[in-house]
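ok here's DUF4872 domain-containing protein:
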Amino acid sequence: MTIVKGIEPRGMQHCETTALGVLLRHEALDLSEPMLFGLGSGLSFIYWDGKDMAFPFLGGRVKPFELTRNLAARLGLTLKVEETTSARKAWENAAGPIDAGRPVGLQLDCYHLDYFRSKVHFGGHVVAMYGYDEHDVYLVDTDQQGGAVRSSRAGLAMARAERGPMTARNRSFTITLPAHPLPWQDQIIPAIRHCADAFLAAPIANLGHRGIEKAGKQVPKWLLRAGDPQQDLPQAALLMEKAGTGGALFRALYRDFLDECTQLIDNDNLRTAHKLYAEAATLWTHVSTLIAKAGESSDTGYLEQAGATLHALSRIEKDAMQVLRQL
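and the structure:
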């Protein structure tokens, strides 16, 4: 058995920030999950409904691994990323850092992990690996998945090699702090402005605040769009609220990030935006509740209420990001 010493296997709410927390704490940088999410400019929105999709997807964050790249660039971290199509090389890329005493992050499809109770394909899942033996690997996943967990080496290999939406080719990564790290507090406002600019200037209409507006128009049609409304709509609501988003489609995490920022920076715009995202988080939870009720009852009235709330959310989040862009 090979185990990295000094690992604090603390599961958090979201997979990528959980893995980042493990890697950064090993480098003696301990930041809260909302701060990791905010410094990585993680908040976004996408309404995604492709021809080959069984049901639309509402996403509340940037693309998988973009948060990690943003955070590393902003804090001056050395991010070493490995990808390969070789199963042998993939294992060497994961085991090598552990043999050298360093945890490693892995992007994979959680469907193949032994400890996952809900078998759903999602290729953008991220875990931290801190040990292995002849049969199993030792991972840190989100709190809801168990925090410190084990999975078979065979299952891990399949999870890492899976192909499909949001997957990567056996991606592994390590993070190293420089000898003289940049003060992370100085990067708060640049991170916020980067996030706000991207949200307000999204290039297509299903992203950012325009995407939320589009969702407001499409969600009332979801009973007709669904193949199995009693399953599809509650599942969509669950993904928004419980499936590693930190609640309210990541808006609760961003609300808490802004709250933490107001304790560090005395700024009226920050306080205003925090209040707006506190309101937005409550409304997103309300939307997910309405969607679930619509699926359970087949009552379009719930979806019409959800659509109206999404229209309001588009305005609220646009206002909040315009305020944040002025920092």
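+1. The mean pLDDT is 96.
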